[in-house]
Structures are given as structure tokens and as C-alpha cells.
Design a protein that fits this description.
This protein is α+β, with helices and mostly antiparallel strands. It is built from seven helices and nine strands, in the order βαββααββααβαβαββ. The protein has a three-stranded antiparallel β-sheet with strand order 1-3-2.
């Protein structure tokens, strides 16, 4: 049985067959292994008038970056003393920063052995979320550095502002289902806009059980994005 990452492409010349295959796979030449199945030079006298067809077998190389993205990260556990210190660090910072935020802004901190969950609430904090959550994720990184002050371990911080992440997750799930239906109906692949790794994971997970389509992440950060296409093995 042929692997799903292998295709047979045809053309009037070897180069044309390869180009046709690259277009079908939507990758560059360095991303595939190529094996010529029928060479256009090996033609008999009796076939000289027949249409020239060259076949090549193209197999996608292992996507090491993709495997790295899906590899589960090692969870760092904090002692009770480390949890307490991290919480104190965040509280000290938040008490200062909250003075600069809109009136009636509140925050909560929940700690456990894997890190801290910080929730900031106020309906006027759109500027702190930013486009597609870019500012929120940057702020989350800052909080992680602050929480780890005088602690030898990296402290995991999960930040949410006015329930943005839950709303965004629902939006992405609905987007994934809608695009999958379009791909199934038209047979054409759809390339989504660049997303955070956290958001790409939502798309992959949402469509994991849909055997009619397949998802693939391409590109480099911060422009890494997902392509949703038909699962041609089904």
C-alpha cells in the first residue's frame, strides 16, 4: 500500500512531471524525494508517434519541524514554596500595573504544581488583547519571566483577559468545520492565515476525527499557517 505522502505525477518531460507533482503537493523541490518511473529518452521506434508521457514518483520528506511542534512538552512541577513565591511575584507586579488599567479592572490568580493561571477582567481591555491576541501572548511571556524571579525553574503562566481565549477557541473550531466543508465540497485545498502554535493546535484537534480532510502546518514562525486539504487516502 502506497504511503499517503507519495504520489505519481505525469508530464511530457521529466521536468514537467516534477513541476506537476510539486503543484499537487504544494511544496518546493527540496521537500520531496523523486524517483523517475518512465524516462522520456527510452522510447522505441514503434512508440515514436505515441503521446510522450513521463511518470515520476514523489515522496514528501519527513517534516521534522511539524513533528517537533506536536511533540508534548515536558511538564515542570513546582513545589508549594515555589508556587507561593511565583504568586507573590505576580501579585506585586499586578498591583502596580492595575493602577494604569481602566477603572474597576480586577484579576485573579490560581496556582497549582504546573504553574499559575491569571485572569484579568474588564470589558475595556481590548488594547491589552491586541490583534488575534498578539498583545495578550506577549504580556503572558512577560508575566512568566516575572513569576520566575528568584525561582530556578521556568514558571508556566496561562493568561486570559475577559475570557478571550475561550471565545477564540470556539471561533477557531467553527472556522475549522466551515473550511473543512468547503474543501470537501470543492475538492480544493484552503490555506488559513498565520496563527499562534496554540491556535494551530485547536484547528488540528478539531479536524483530527474528520477522515475526509487532512491538516498540515507549513512555513516558519511567525508566519506558520495551516493548509486544510482532501484526505486522498480515503
Amino acid at each position: 500500500m502506497m504511503d499517503k505522502t507519495t504520489i505519481i505525477s505525469e508530464g511530457r518531460t521529466t521536468n514537467e512531471a516534477i513541476e506537476n507533482g510539486l503543484k499537487q503537493l504544494r511544496v518546493s523541490k527540496d521537500k520531496v524525494d523523486i524517483k523517475i518511473l518512465e524516462n522520456e529518452e527510452k522510447r522505441s521506434f514503434f512508440s515514436i508517434l505515441a503521446p510522450r508521457i513521463v511518470k515520476v514518483e514523489m515522496t514528501l520528506k519527513e517534516n521534522k519541524t511539524e513533528k517537533k511542534e506536536s511533540k508534548p512538552k515536558k511538564i515542570i512541577e513546582l513545589s508549594e514554596e515555589e508556587q507561593q513565591k511565583a504568586e507573590e511575584n505576580i501579585k506585586t507586579f499586578m498591583e502596580d500595573i492595575i493602577k494604569e488599567l481602566p477603572k474597576n479592572t480586577t484579576y485573579t490568580i490560581q496556582k497549582d504544581k504546573t504553574g499559575l493561571n491569571v485572569e484579568i477582567s474588564n470589558e475595556n481591555l481590548g488594547f491589552l488583547i491586541g490583534y488575534r491576541g498578539e498583545t495578550l501572548y506577549a504580556f503572558q511571556t512577560i508575566l512568566s519571566a516575572i513569576a520566575g524571579k528568584e525561582i530556578d525553574k521556568k514558571v508556566r503562566i496561562i493568561l486570559d483577559i475577559e475570557g478571550y481565549k475561550a471565545k477564540r477557541e470556539k471561533t477557531l473550531e467553527e472556522l475549522a468545520e466551515k473550511v473543512a466543508k468547503t474543501v470537501i465540497k470543492t475538492g480544493k485545498s484552503v490555506k488559513l492565515e498565520p496563527m499562534q502554535a496554540y491556535e494551530r493546535k485547536i484547528i488540528h484537534s478539531t479536524l483530527q476525527q474528520n477522515d475526509k480532510v487532512q491538516t498540515e502546518s507549513i512555513g516558519e514562525e511567525p508566519n506558520r499557517r495551516i493548509i486544510i486539504s482532501l484526505n486522498k487516502t480515503k
